[in-house]
Give the backbone structure.
Amino acid sequence: MNSAPNQPNNTFNSQPATGTQSNPFTADLKGEFTSNFGTNTNAVSQIFKDGSFGGSNKNKFIIYGAVGVVVLALAWFLMSSGDETDVASTDAVEEDAGDEADTTADTAATAEAPAEATAKPAEVPAQAPAAQPAASGSISLTSPESGASLAYDETQGSAMFSWNGGPGTIVFSRHNNMQPEVMRVKVSGSTYAFHHPWPGQWFWKVESEGGASEVRSFTVAAPIRRNVAMTAPAAGASIAGTGGVVSWTGDKGVAYYRVELNQGDDWSNPKFKFSSSGSQVQLNGVTAGQYNMRLGAFSEVSGRWEYTQPIGVTIQ
C-alpha cells in the first residue's frame, strides 16, 4: 500500500476555512479614526459650515484633496492587511489539510495492516498432508498365504517363506504395523527358513531396493500334547519302595519318560526320579511314607516335559 504524500496535492477539494478569521489590525484602526471619521457622517460638512476653510475655493480644493488622500490611504491599508491575513489563513488551512491528510493516511495504514495480516492466511489455503502411498515394489510374496496357520512341531522342518523379486530383507513382527520388529534377516535369495517360530500370531514382509511387499500374517498354534497316562499304581494305592513297578501308556514323539515322587507341592526338585524309554519303571530305595507321584514325558514335538496330574500313593 502506497503511503500518503507529505505535501497536499491537487486531489484535495478547496474548502473554506471554518470559523471567523478576524483582522488583527481592525481594532487599532477603529480606535484611531473613530473620533473624526466614525459614525458621524456629517463631520466633513460640519467643518465647511463652521467656516474654518470657507474663505476661498482654493482652500476647499485642498480640504477635499486631503480627505481623499486619507480615504485612499485607509482603503489601501485595509486591503493590504486583509490580503496578508488571507494568505496566512490559506497557508494555515493548507498546512492543516496536509497534516490531516498525513494523519488520515497513517490511520488508514494502521487500520489496514491487521486486516492485511489477517487476510494472508486466507490467500494461501492450508494443504492437507500428502497421503502415504501403499507399500509396493518389485517384491511380491508367494508363500505362505496371508492367514495361514501351522502347529508348533519340532519334529517337522522349519517354516518356509518365499517371494518373487530376488534378494531382500525379510522382517517379522508380532504386530500388523511391523513395530516392534522381532527379527530382520538379509536374504541372498528369494526364500527363507524360519526355524520353529513359537506359538502366536505373526506378521511378515520383504523389503528390497525396489520397495517393500505387502504385509502378510500367519499363526502358529500351540504344540499338541503327548497322550500319555499312568496305569499303575492307582491313586491312593500302596507300592513297595524297592521293587515296586510303575507303568503307563505312551505315545509317539516322546524321547523318554520319568516317574517323580515328592512329599510336597514344589516340583522344581523332586525327592525321587526314575527314567525309562519304555512304558514302565521299577522303584528302588524309596523310603516309606506318603508321596505324590506323577509321570512326565519329554515331547519331541514341543521340545519340553509334559506331565500328568499327580496322584497320592503310600510307599511301603
